[in-house]
Design brief:
The chain is an alpha+beta fold. It contains 14 helices and eleven strands. β6 and β7 form a beta hairpin.
Amino acid sequence: MNPPATRTISVDQLCVGLYVHLDMRWLDHTFARNSFLLKNAGQIDAIKRLGITEIRVEPARCTHRPLPLPAQAPEPPAPAAPSAEENALINEKKARIERIRAERAAIARCEKEFAKAGSALKSIERNVFSRPQEAYAEADKLVQQMLDALLADKAIAIHLMNDKIAGEDVYFHSLNVSVLAMMVAKELGLPDEDIKAVGIGCLFHDIGKGEIPAAIVNATQPLNRAQKNLLQLHCQYGLNAVAKLGLPKGALDIVGQHHEYLDGSGYPQRLRGEAIAQVARIACVVNAYDNLCNRTNPADSLTPYEALSTMFAQQRHLFDAGALNMFIRCMGVYPPGTLVRLSDETLGMVISINSGKPLRPSVLIYDPNVPKDEAIILDLSQESDLEISASLKPGQLGPEAYDYLSPRKRMSYFLDTPKPGTKKP
């Protein structure tokens, strides 16, 4: 993607209708973005107050031509008090900076809790056979913490995690499925004990794969029939593995039925419709999504947007309609991890969603004028003039934008878990 063609003009030529680019740090001006269309005289006054004499404009996106240069340079005006419009811009910018700080703090908090949860899950799976009661107690504690976070607020905030934390670890698949399935169960109105059973069952849903050769579990090429049959045994192996844990029935249903499809084409029992437990139907939807996004061969993985589109357009006969529709409603059309183009042509990556506002996620913005570690995060629920216009594949980004946004090789999510006594941003 080539940079837009721009030309430099004097600030004395500014008028409403010009699309301008500010070549300065985002924190050094009052505007929401470094590039934008001038809509009023207050914006022009605010630019002139920055002390710059020239500015870049993008002709292709201007609705008016620049003013002609004055015959002779005007005398610089005496400093005047900021206008009401400028004060509004300043206050809006301050509020935006506070929202970004809150979002960064929430993500940092989530990544810390996500790493702790992953470590706990490793310990749980190590202890399943040698210390089963200890393993169950650890799982119960971990899921209770996630349940408390879910119930702390009507709306649920889900954040995209950093690849450096999730890595390629298989434990994070189970954690991913557990977090998202509990979210769906909560939004479907299931009782708290059933939501907890969903969380516990999803933590253990793939534990039977420990009995399958790693070469089959991690194969990047299609399996032959014998290998597929062996892999499908992981559901029964899983039930055997957790037999001594004393899991609730709903959790056992998930371990045994998370690959059963509504039309009877699943395994291991080829169950149909209502014969599949509701909690297992929820787990099946989320497990399928995570497997589409995080295939063993990363080159075959779908983007989050593609995964949801595939499930709804091509595979919805496999899934419980209520669970699938609720999952899509919670994740939004553009789930975290989706690369997007906004309505003003800005590129970005969705990093957080709120179940109460799924169509207005938080987006990390690509702006070469802003250092990568200070990247702007826009909460679209607070940006009435912006919306997502398209989903992009990583290959559609130029090298600079790709490096800046760092698309995730693995999609991992975690709940916003505020400290006691604090509210979610």
